[in-house]
Design brief:
CATH class: Mainly Alpha
Number of strands: 4
Radius of gyration: 18 Å
Largest sheet: 2 strands, antiparallel
Number of helices: 5
CATH topology: Hypothetical Protein Ta1238, Chain: A
CATH architecture: Up-down Bundle
Number of domains: 1
């Protein structure tokens, strides 16, 4: 278990941060930006959680926040060491089950959905866009030759599924889609 007795260390005052393997990177390095954006995704989900959300969303979103700490740890310790916490296929499969369960209750879409509706839904849409940014940063990291073998492909798959789940959960939070704000191409029929 983690034990933190002191919050500041002053070691980052030089513009670097320590990874889980002890190496230091500049704070603007794409790896640090990637796991920082994963943390931002969790924080945005936290804002959604203080809104009124229907069951089972709160319980599942808290589980996802925990997953995101695991995923951040995966990114914070480069490589594929077997003794490190890693995202597994089971994490991705769970998200896929949850997407299928929730989506089965929703009507098919006939237009794109704009972020909005109920406050909880709007924050879930925001979390989805932050998650997509994290996904892009992880993709950028894994595309670097020196990092290619140091990024678990399951991290990318998890973030991709999570953004889909957050979209579906935003629709659930909007009265199972009844309160979705639909895109009207060219503003047709807009007030």
């Amino acid at each position: 278990m983690v034990h933190l007795s002191k919050i500041y260390t002053r070691t980052g005052d030089d513009g670097t941060t320590g990874l889980g393997d002890g190496t230091r990177l500049e704070k603007h390095h794409v790896r640090v930006a990637a796991y920082g954006t994963v943390d931002e995704t969790s924080s945005t989900i936290g804002v959604a959680l203080v809104q009124e959300l229907p069951p089972p969303l709160p319980e599942r979103l808290r589980r996802i926040q925990n997953d995101l700490f695991d995923l951040g740890a995966d990114l914070c310790v480069p490589g594929r060491a077997d003794d490190k916490l890693r995202i597994t296929a089971a994490y991705v499969e769970r998200l896929e089950r949850w997407i299928d369960q929730a989506n089965a209750e929703l009507e098919s879409l006939r237009s794109f959905v704009l972020p909005g509706g109920e406050p909880g839904a709007a924050f879930l849409h925001l979390a989805r866009t932050v998650c997509r940014r994290a996904e892009r940063l992880v993709q950028e990291l894994s595309a670097r030759e020196e990092e290619r073998e140091r990024v678990d492909p399951l991290v990318l798959r998890y973030l991709n599924r999570l953004s889909d789940l957050l979209f579906v959960y935003a629709r659930v939070a909007n009265g199972n889609g009844e309160l979705d704000v639909l895109w009207r191409p060219g503003g047709e029929a807009a007030p």
